[in-house]
Amino acid sequence: MNKKDKFFKEFFEKKRNDLSFISIKEGASISFKNAQYKTNAELPVPLRVQRLLEDIKNQDDRDGITLNNIIDGIIYILGTDIDFGFVDEYNKMLKELNFEVGPYIVYCINKFEDSEYEDGIVYGRALVNIKEDEKSCFIYASALEKAGLKLHEEGNEQKSQYFLEEANRYLEKCLDYDDKFALAYYKLGYYYKRNQKYVKADLIWTKHQELDDDVLRIDEIRNELIQLRPYVDFENGYNLVLRERPEEGLDLLLPLVKNFGSWWNLLFFIGLAYRALGQYD
Question: Do 204 and 185 touch, CB atoms closer than 8 A?
Fold first, then answer.
């Protein structure tokens, strides 16, 4: 198991351990709108104690545990322990209550504060565990990316890298399900740009321009592609030099000197190309 996988295994185990359980007696009923679910046997129901205490603190005349607390606990089980023995019964409960948990998860993720990014990750993983497709992978990837960028701002680079790498993995999965999913190309381009993989960012964003129908995103990425061009030429240029094609490399690198003459790495590869050509002056 690599370090990233170990990190996520421990992350979800810790979140799983945040749950406690209460038992609902056989024959007890839970209502939602006009629907009702009735237990056939005693049922352990997961709850996040801290969340429950916060909700009780904010209650007025209502007492104790609400359906929201139960749904939150079920989502946490779906996100952290999908093989838990009572998952099928929880799914039966949601079905009999006509509770559409998928849209509810998306609604909650969109409402979470920045400080609740870990909740967003657990909810996003629950969505993937319920049904993995391009949309659920994208929502989960976005939650992971949000966490990664926040941790980067806080200077926690190692954890940030794990979250961003996992976000990238799920964005790539989006394209496995639907290779015309424009939003995945949109976000993947930024991931590769952040990681200085400029040629790959250029390819991904060029594909995005062919697929997206959102005018604002199209304009945004068109501008990104323009700004990216010298970096793409630099990456292609130095790779040509390293592949012992110095003349072709210089064709791309020399025009960059006018605006980027202070780049030591640009000047290094230009010097390396001239050296390969036997020109030392």
Answer: yes
The SS3 of residue 167 is helix
Q: How many CA atoms lie within 13 A of 42 on its CB side?
A: 4
Q: Concatenate the DSSP letters of all residues of 13-57 into one string.
A: HHHHTTEEEEEEPTT-EEEETTEEEE-SS-EEEEEEHHHHHHHHH
Decide the pairing of beta strands 19-24 and 35-38.
unpaired
**Which pLDDT band, with edges at 50, 70 and 90, does 64 fall under?**
low
From the number of C-beta atoms within 10 Å of its C-beta (0-12, 13-18, 19+), residue 246 rates as buried
Amino acid at 77: I
- 188 vs 200: CA distance, rounded Å: 9
Q: How far is CA 85 from the centre of its chain?
A: 28
pLDDT at 61 exceeding the cut of 60: no
Tokens of 227: 């700004």
CB 154 within 8 A of CB 134: no
Asked if pLDDT for residue 53 goes beyond 90, the answer is no
Contacts of the segment 26-35: beta carbons below 8 A, 24+ positions apart? 30/67, 30/70, 30/93, 30/97, 31/97, 32/67, 32/97, 32/98, 32/99, 33/98, 35/96, 35/97, 35/98, 35/99
26: its two tokens: 């056989």
β-strand 35-38 against 43-48: which pairing, if any? Answer: unpaired
Q: Is the pLDDT assigned to residue 190 strictly greater than 90?
A: yes
| Residue 146: pLDDT band with limits 50, 70, 90 | very high
Report the Cα 67 to chain-centroid distance in Å. 28
Examine the pLDDT at 65 and tell me if it is beyond 80: no
